[in-house]
Amino acid sequence: MGMFILRRSGQAVLVVMGATLLVFIATFALGDPFASTGDRQVPPEIAAANRAQFGLDQPLPIQYVTYLGNLFTGDLGVDFDQRRPVIDMLAETVPNTVRLALVAILIDVIIGVVAGIIAAVKRYSFADVLVTVLSTLAIGVPVFVIGIVLVANLSGVGPFPTVPRSFTVEVPWYQEVLLPAFALAIIDAAFIARLMRGSMLEVLRSDYIRTARAKGLSERKVIGKHALRNSLIPVVTYIGVSLGVLLGGAIITETIFQYNGVGFLLFRAISGNNAPVISAVVVFGVLAYVLLSLLVDILYAFLDPRIRLN
């Protein structure tokens, strides 16, 4: 198990290094990201300070080394619009995105896993057909359509806050996160239900399940103790990848609901061609995705020891 973790960790480091190199080339090496363009006028002293900070007056390899050094020390540059350190902006938005991602994943797991188990255990029943039809319909609906429908019908209704709302209106985080979390969870829950159903049906046909039933174990024990663990393997993989994507910022959903998270920050940065913020958010998204993928691999190996040998 130790060698497996070490090998996967080494692969994760290589992926992060490659991703930071691509981000550096796309953001800084191809042109001057700190030059004044169009309506955006960057004061000369700010532009010069940013160029010096990122070493853009040095040869390209030195520029990249300087960029990596800034990343490791948390020096991500200064925002063009508010003249604030980018690290402070991330510190404000990342906790909001983490809450949104965790609530969305919790809804995914509760709805998707339960629906998938019911559909598999009661195969070809009305419940199975209902889960299959609803999950197929949900998968086919784009997330921005779901978001717009939720805003149009539930904004300001009951516990859901008004969208958009004035910045002077304070809303508890558990209310603010509900609508965007449901928008994100609907499609993922449908995927999880389909995955869980297919995986559970495959496991239920296994020899060890037939042996467990032949020993006289109750159907509840067969499902809960023997079938559920192996059935969860593909679901755990999908949940980990989905969580990594959400932590990187659900840009469409957060923008629709004007939710102050990493995705909405990235949208504003792209709209204003704000290079330091774009670079920081993209690198954060890559790190979140890679770390969650590493944790999923480790959990996958724990659930299925055969994985460790690959």
Automatic annotation (TrEMBL):
Q: How does it sit in the membrane?
A: Multi-pass membrane protein
Q: Where are the transmembrane segments?
A: 12-31, 100-121, 133-157, 177-196, 235-257, 277-303
Which PROSITE patterns does UniProt cross-reference here? ABC_TM1
Question: What is the protein named?
Answer: ABC transporter permease
Provide this UniProt record's keywords sorted from A to Z.
Cell membrane, Membrane, Transmembrane, Transmembrane helix, Transport
Q: Which family does it belong to?
A: Belongs to the binding-protein-dependent transport system permease family.
The record places domain ABC transmembrane type-1 at 94-300
Species of the source: Pseudonocardia bannensis
